[in-house]
UniProtKB/TrEMBL annotation:
GO MF annotations in UniProt: diaminobutyrate-2-oxoglutarate transaminase activity
NCBIfam families on file: dat (TIGR00709), ectoine_ectB (TIGR02407), PRK09264.1 (NF006733)
Catalytic class of the enzyme: transferase
Alphabetized UniProt keyword annotations: Aminotransferase, Pyridoxal phosphate, Transferase
Source organism of the structure: Microbacterium horticulturae
Known pathway: Amine and polyamine biosynthesis; ectoine biosynthesis; L-ectoine from L-aspartate 4-semialdehyde: step 1/3
EC id: 2.6.1.76
Protein name listed in UniProt: Diaminobutyrate--2-oxoglutarate transaminase
Length: 424
């Protein structure tokens, strides 16, 4: 049996240094089912990472796997660009019937490419085309992707600096609670919009995450989101909600903005929309915004039909009633309670429990502490990552289908790891 170093030599020797997750988890994974990942050595890890939110229904979900295997075995179309296929039609019908219509939402669907950054780029591009304006407003600690347009509306300096060119035509504003409610909501933003001497170019759009995952599990209040939607309406600014990580049920409802009762002009979806971890992305746009010329925005991988097949089955399985939504909210409350207990147990550690639904975080005083807790948890058999501008937040994204027993086992590991690290 090779040592860990021998087993990983090909990765460390041939892959770029840009690798990240494999540095935190230096083992070779081979199999995965539900919320458990297994290494080639047979060691099992409980997964509270879920492909950074791309596996809301767990690894190799059996119902989705059966649909995928049958689809491939039957020589169904795999690659189709934007040609009509039966799999594409099935998805559109299921999405309209089970997702849009019950929520009284009227959107056209753009298939912008395989990933979340593609969905964001399409939204930004269309907003500028519709309005004739260049500027977009984003928020502090936002993350919207790694391509140039998406990076321009991202807050993290490490990721922004990787662009190598000026990132322009975007203006950051304070996210909810950035000033600890020392000022009224949108005090700064509204002043700049109303003052002809502010120097703020009239924005084409505002792009926002209802919960900032990479930014540190910062959850915006429903009233803040409603205030933002009203501000955009008042000033004729398009509202884009980036639901790439927080959509598809992560916070409870299928869309993370449902709780606030708002209707964005555009919505970006990816990650778990395919249901199985397959590449797929959507940009939802109000019909009056659909001013594209044919082929004006396109891409080779915007019609991956096996993803349509698993996406349709995921909707049929989990979104024809509210059982998953209720379960997600209940499990999220359980995590919140456990985190509040940890905070109370360590009153001098400056801990803060954060998040919503099954997107949860525990903020530490430093990134070193959060990283140490995640490392200790990994040694105990649990996969978690950190987030936040300094990596100071321990971030949980368990599968929505995780069992109560698995959730409790993971929370017990977190309890032990936090206690062990803070006792050092």
């Amino acid at each position: 049996m090779p040592t860990t170093e021998e087993a990983t030599t090909i990765f460390t020797g041939l892959e770029s240094r840009v690798r990240s997750y494999s540095r935190s988890w230096p083992v070779v994974f081979d199999r995965a089912v539900g919320s458990t990942m297994t290494t080639e050595d047979g060691d099992e890890y409980l997964d509270f990472f879920s492909g950074a939110g791309a596996l809301n229904y767990g690894h190799n979900n059996p119902r989705l796997k059966r649909v995928l295997l049958d689809y491939i075995a039957d020589d169904r179309v795999t690659h189709s660009l934007d040609m009509f296929t039966s799999a594409r039609r099935d998805f559109l019908q299921e999405f309209e019937r089970s997702i849009l219509s019950p929520r009284d939402l009227d959107y056209r669907l753009v298939f912008p490419g395989p990933g979340g950054a593609n969905a964001v780029e399409a939204a930004l591009k269309l907003a500028r085309k519709v309005t004739g304006r260049e500027s977009v407003v984003n928020f502090t600690n936002a993350f919207h992707g790694m391509t140039l347009g998406a990076l321009s509306v991202t807050g993290n300096s490490l990721k922004r600096n990787g662009a190598g060119v000026p990132l322009v035509h975007a203006t950051p504003m304070p996210y909810d609670d950035y000033f600890d409610h020392s000022y009224p909501d949108f005090f700064y933003f509204e002043r700049l919009l109303s003052d002809s001497g502010s120097g703020l170019n009239e924005p084409a759009a505002v792009i926002v995450e209802t919960v900032q995952g990479e930014g540190g599990m910062n959850a915006a209040r429903a009233e803040w989101l409603r205030g933002l939607a009203e501000l955009c309406r008042t000033h004729d600014i398009l509202l884009i909600v980036d639901d790439v990580q927080m959509g598809c049920g992560r916070t409870g409802g299928f869309f993370s903005f449902e709780e606030a009762g708002i209707v964005p002009d555009m919505v970006c979806l990816s990650k778990s929309i395919s249901g199985y971890g397959l590449p797929m992305a959507l940009t939802l746009i109000k019909p009056e915004l659909d001013v594209w010329e044919p082929g004006e925005h396109n891409g080779t991988f915007r019609g991956i039909s096996p993803a349509f097949a698993t996406a349709s089955e995921a909707i049929r399985t989990y979104w024809t009633d509210d059982a998953l939504e209720k379960s997600t909210i209940t499990k999220g409350t359980r995590i919140e309670s456990r985190f509040n207990g940890i905070v109370a147990r360590h009153p001098d550690a400056s801990l803060v429990a954060k998040g919503r639904g099954l997107a949860r975080g525990l903020q530490f005083a430093t990134g070193e502490l959060a990283g140490a807790v995640c490392h200790d948890a990994f040694e105990r058999g649990l996969l978690m990552e950190t987030s936040g501008p300094e990596g100071e937040v321990m971030k949980l994204l368990p599968a929505l289908t995780i069992t109560d027993a698995e959730l409790d086992r993971g929370l017990d590991i977190i309890d032990a790891s936090v206690d062990a690290v803070l006792a050092r």
